[in-house]
Fold this sequence. Notes:
The complex is a heterodimer of chains A (274) and B (410). By secondary structure, chain A is an all-alpha fold.
Amino acid sequence: MPTAPIVIRRRTGLAALQLSDIWHFRELLALFAWRDVLVRYKQTVIGILWALIRPLLTILVFTFVFGKLGGLPSEGVPYPLLTFAAVLPWQLFATALGDSSVSVVGNAHILSKVYFPRVLIPISAVIASLVDFAISLVIFLIALAVYGVPFSPRLLALPLYIALCITFGLGLGFWFSALFVRYRDVRHLVPFIVQLGIYISPVGFSSDIVPERWRTLYALNPLVAVIDGFRWCTLGQPALRLGEITGAVAVSVILLISGIYYFRQTERTFADLV
Amino acid sequence: MPTSSDAAVEVREISKQYRLGETVAYGALRDHITTSFRRMIGREAPRRSTTFWALRDVSFDVPRGSVFGIIGRNGAGKSTLLKVLSRITEPTSGEARLYGRVASLLEVGTGFHPELTGRENVFLNGSILGMSRREIRARFDEIVAFAEIEKFLDTPVKRYSSGMYVRLAFAVAAHVDPDILLVDEVLAVGDAAFQRKCLGKIESVSEEGRTVVLVSHNMNVVGQLCNNVAWLRSGELRAIGNPTKVITEYLAEGRESELEWRPNEHDPRRPLRFHSVSLVREDEIGGNAFAWNMPIHIVLDFSLENPMPPTHIALHLLMEDGQTLLNTVSSDNRPHLNHEITPGRHRYRCTIPGGLLRPGRYFLSMWEPAGNRHVHREGILSFTVTDEHNPGARHGQYGLITPILQWELD
């Protein structure tokens, strides 16, 4: 026999991550992501420009509400840039979470007809969200140059914060996409989380205005570290507290691992339930 | 565990249990929490879950390079078995081994996205079916030529006619080169020419030494294509082996003296509600046998609640080995009429002329309209034609049918 047989039996015990399987199916993963990107802007008039308009409008509103009306401090940085540096990872997180949460149910017609590692579905949704992010990032870098903010070597740390953001989004995405198969409440829960999340994350304001006694609770949200990290890399804002970064990484990694575990445990009934 | 080295698929005591209603059991988290809570405080009896076995201890081998058919009535577990073998759903117990690359075709066009163009969908669908991008690129022109849609390659498939859509979908599927192909009723779609194309493809696949596992309702197809047939009944393997033998057993099962068929359930999505299909005799024999020289009437009693577009009911008369002897359609003798049926209760009577059928055993299947397709009701009736009571019977007749034709001497 040239290759090992495919063995089909009930899986017991802990589910493996299937990293080798993901590698084996990498082309399908890429195609799913590519499909999601293509479909997102099909039959829209301005197409990919939506990837720009959404963050720009958010920045405009937040600058006006928090900066002008609220008069919040901006640590010597133009308020639009302070918001932009936060909207960027926020939008990435929100899109990644939103799209991956509905991904399994949204692809039910495929799941019930063909086998492939189910984890590809939420992962591809997150990859697709990176495309929008990349476009906004370019605009952001241009905006930095326009405002005359110097590029510092700290920019090299940016991918780490992007990775942290993705880890958090994907971890929640695994949880919600698997929960969604059984509980349709997720459809209402996720937009709610996204809606509230923008106010408990430092998107429209700087972390410095958060009172010290709330600080630990506040920093349990990994997006605090992500957004502060973005501001540190690009705007030269004060460095992060080590404890907060460690906490953010820990929360995100725990969510990701437990999310994958829950996903893999429940995926065997996906086809019977969706 | 017995293994044979030349098996492409080994199935060992596969069982699959479903909780009743589980397929629609997604619910609100709230319900889940409240019932759990009520159960905890004893306000509600613990849920007695009703379960059923979609598959029970099914074991068989599929020899490499053969075409293996799976037959059985609706709900017998055929599709579940195919889903287990395709790794779409996990068995509850048991084990199966598949030696080689597997592709499953449980429908045509899995993963087609309406917004994407034909070209884009070829890549997407091909990947989903397990082809690499390199393979798809290499066979792209072949696929497009097979589907005959060159001009519409860059049109979103949502603008395709259903015929074009199915052709493209099948073209992709036909160019996947698996060692083991799992097929479910794909052949039921499309027109006759398209079905022939599919059959030809399956035949050529097996000639190339690949293995095909096929679920079908079409006894002709199963009888012609398959080297082995497995018959599932209520999730259990009832018989396995030579196609003719298994098909005969299957069609004959429980049909010793059934000259009348009454459906025990009605699917509200189907426009016609059947009350019965029965055989009415003109001879005096009685029992399950009909005299060879007397007409046999097939009476279809049904009602229609809402007006529906013109359609027809088809009947298949099958011989003992599962081959279709003839096919007749309710619109056969009035093609010029707009064959519309008004709401209300109706009866169709279809008459098989006396003398047509050779002595032997026959089965009747029906295709009833359901939306824009037809649903198969298999082996609803069976009967025997005999010449024992007719001294004038014509012994020694050859051929599948024995009509009395006109001979005139000028």
